[in-house]
Amino acid sequence: MKCPICGAAELIHDTRDLPYSYKGETLVMAAVQGDFCPACSEAILEADESKRVFAAMQAFKNEVNTSHRDLD
Ligand SMILES: [Zn+2]
């Protein structure tokens, strides 16, 4: 399947560690399964995997916000 974002390349099904940055902190989400575009680096995840990744991002944001609260 061609990348729906850029249309420039075929997606590659793979398992990768995805970095996610928030307020200068970086979380690496381990072993994320999905279809990855080699041209624009977009990741297309299946519904279950997408939920897991979204939950990990939310938890990470909460953690970052909690640890930065003293600085506000
Ligand atoms: Zn793409």
Percent helix, as a range, is 25-40%
Backbone CA Rg: 15 Å
Number of domains: 1
* Form type: elongated
How many angstroms separate the termini? 46 Å
Report the CATH C-level class: Alpha Beta
Strand order of the largest sheet: 1-2-3
As for the CATH topology, it is Ubiquitin-like (UB roll)
Oligomer: single chain
Q: Supply the CATH architecture.
A: Roll
Low-confidence spans: none
Topology order in helix (H) and strand (E) letters = EEEH
**Strand-residue fraction?**
35-45%
By DSSP, the count of extended strands is: 3
Kindly name the structural category: alpha+beta
Largest sheet: 3 strands, antiparallel
Description:
A hairpin with a 6-residue loop joins strand 2 (25-36) and strand 3 (43-45). The chain has a three-stranded antiparallel sheet with strand order 1-2-3. The protein is built from one helix and three strands. With 72 residues, it is an alpha+beta fold. 6% of the residues are buried. It has one domain: Ubiquitin-like (UB roll) (Roll). Helices cover 31% and strands 36% of the residues. The structure holds zinc ion. Zinc ion binds at residues 3, 5-6, 8-9, 37, 39-40, 42.
